[in-house]
Design brief:
The complex is a heterodimer. By secondary structure, chain A is mainly alpha-helical. Chain A contains 10 helices and 1 strand, in the order H-H-H-H-E-H-H-H-H-H-H. Chain B is elongated and about 60 Å long. The chains are: A mainly alpha, B mainly alpha. Strand 1 of chain A pairs parallel with strand 1 of chain B, so a sheet runs across the interface.
């Protein structure tokens, strides 16, 4: 695969080959992530990719990337920024039709959790971005009390990565992962209820 | 979109998107490595791929602020007169901007913001174009000063008394205060703030 420095140089030289390389190395994966993991429509996904790659091209001459890691991290921040915008816009449009439920197999907390996670805060988030939400703070605190592996599994699964992909990323066996995930979710729900009482 | 959404997963998704803003290098590196490991489940639509490449090719060409404004005026059929009205600038000033005759930070920042908004030019595009115009004008100044430096002197003596200095020193009208990179960066920071409001 072509080096990131070569991609940068081609783009700085205004060589269209740089765009093809950039798309092959990053754009295609971003497309899959937007469509399959975040369920954006095809058009929305292309918009996110365009805006992400456009931002990189426009910033390239003013930024110095010390390493591939630095380059990749920049792209990650830009991608998630646009993804967040489209996610919020999407949810905001479909707000009236959404029903928030507990889809875990656990019976015990199924009704409790819908009471303890404030759905109005979701609506607020879709309409206008905010950071200092008490709900997010509670969630952050509750997640921090969990085993780091449980936290990773929960956040990866929420992004719709398959159990197979999660097992590969975390270097663990897939056979019990679904059960581990459900247990982690129950632990998180218990912590959230505990914090709100 | 599935109308029944798991409430805990939705809270985790919001948490994830918000955390991505502040993600440190280690987290960003791990997250993008997950995205880059995704397998393409289906080949993206070649028509969309082609459209993306065409749009990105347009971004690749590094335009000056004047060129960018001329292009957007043409695309959106906005006359100089209309643009002058939108931005509260005179038609002559619009012409000077479109011909790259003045530094962007000679234009009051709020007025440039209105002008860019009126032409639907993003900050990222404007930023790169402003840098290009800056380079063009700096180059022109350099050429002018080099030209005068090479003017032959027919005078034998080049002695200049202290009293003469104030008369000989070029009248800059304080231009050096804003025609420099630092002043331009500060101007761009403010423009970015105004455009994101």
């Amino acid at each position: 695969m072509i080096d990131y420095k070569d991609i940068m140089q081609l783009i700085i030289n205004q060589d269209p080959k740089g765009l093809e390389e950039l798309y092959d190395a990053y754009g295609k994966k971003f497309y899959t992530y937007c469509v399959h993991n975040w369920h954006l429509s095809e058009d929305e996904s292309w918009e996110v990719i365009y805006k992400t790659l456009e931002t990189l091209i426009l910033k390239l001459s003013h930024y110095e990337f010390e390493s591939k890691q630095h380059f990749d991290n920049f792209l990650y921040k830009v991608l998630t920024n646009f993804l967040r915008q489209y996610f919020r816009k999407n949810r905001s449009h479909a707000e009236q039709e959404i029903e928030y439920v507990d889809l875990t197999d656990s019976e015990e907390n199924s009704k409790e959790i819908t009471k303890h996670i404030n759905q109005l805060s979701f609506a607020d988030y879709y309409r206008s971005e905010f950071i200092d939400s008490p709900e997010l703070l509670h969630l952050n605190q509750a997640l921090d009390t969990l085993d780091p592996m449980d936290k990773d599994i929960l956040l990866l699964r929420a992004q719709n990565y398959t159990y197979e992909e999660i097992a590969k990323f975390l270097g663990i066996e897939n056979n019990q992962l679904k059960v581990t995930h459900h247990r982690a979710k129950k632990k998180l729900i218990d912590k959230l209820i505990e914090k709100q009482l | 979109m599935n109308n029944r959404i798991d409430i805990t997963d939705e809270a985790l998704r919001i948490f994830y998107l918000e955390s991505a803003k502040e993600a440190n290098d280690k987290i960003a590196e791990r997250e993008i490595s997950h995205i880059l490991q995704l397998e393409l489940s289906e080949q993206p639509n070649p028509v969309h791929e082609k459209n993306l490449m065409e749009k990105l090719r347009g971004v690749l060409v590094n335009m000056s602020l004047g060129q960018l404004i001329q292009k957007r005026m043409e695309e959106s059929a906005v006359s100089e007169e209309l643009l002058a009205e939108i931005s509260h600038l005179s038609v002559d000033m619009i012409k000077e901007i479109a011909e790259d005759k003045i530094y962007a930070n000679n234009i009051p920042v709020v007025i440039l913001k209105d002008l860019l908004k009126g032409l639907k030019i993003s900050f990222e595009k404007a930023e790169r174009a402003i840098h290009k115009t800056f380079d063009i004008l700096q180059q022109q100044n350099l050429e002018k000063s080099n030209f005068s430096a090479f003017n032959p002197s027919f005078r034998k003596s080049v002695y200049i008394s202290k009293d003469m200095i104030s008369d000989i020193a070029p009248k800059t009208d304080g231009k050096e205060l804003f025609e420099n990179k630092l002043a331009m960066e500060k101007y761009l920071n403010r423009l970015s703030e105004l455009l994101s409001e």
